[in-house]
Amino acid sequence: MMCGAPSAAQPATAETQNMADQVRSQLEDKENKKFPVFEAVSFRSQVVAGTNYFIKVHVGDEEFVHLRVFQSLPHENKPLTLSNYQTNKAKHDELSYF
């Protein structure tokens, strides 16, 4: 993958789920609600000065959210950050870059 070029969508992995779990509380605080389910379904990545992960997460019923999670470079030793998110997504909605 070229620097700055986003990857193709891939099925979520255990590592992707771990990232989603780490930013779950950030999303719940911003949305002022608790999600009954929080299951990463798919993801894309983009290498920048760190890595952006675009993660589709099932949050219950037929509802999904799209997360943009930023992972800084290892030497910066910073936690994952929820950079942006989109709510009211459906299973068939393509995971976009936002």
From TrEMBL:
Predominant location: cytoplasm
SMART domains, per database record: CY
GO cellular component, one term: cytosol
One GO MF term: cysteine-type endopeptidase inhibitor activity
UniProt keyword terms in alphabetical order: Acetylation, Cytoplasm, Protease inhibitor, Thiol protease inhibitor
Location in or out of the cell: Cytoplasm
Residue ranges occupied by any Cystatin domain in the UniProt entry: 1-98
Compositional bias annotation for Polar residues: 13-25
InterPro entries: Cystatin_dom (IPR000010), Cystatin_sf (IPR046350), Prot_inh_cystat_CS (IPR018073), Prot_inh_stefin (IPR001713)
UniProt keyword Acetylation present: yes
Region described as Disordered: 1-27
Pfam families hit by this protein: Cystatin
UniProt similarity note: Belongs to the cystatin family.
Function: This is an intracellular thiol proteinase inhibitor. Tightly binding reversible inhibitor of cathepsins L, H and B.
Complexes and interactors: Able to form dimers stabilized by noncovalent forces.
Protein name: Cystatin-B
Organism, as annotated: Callithrix jacchus
Gene: CSTB
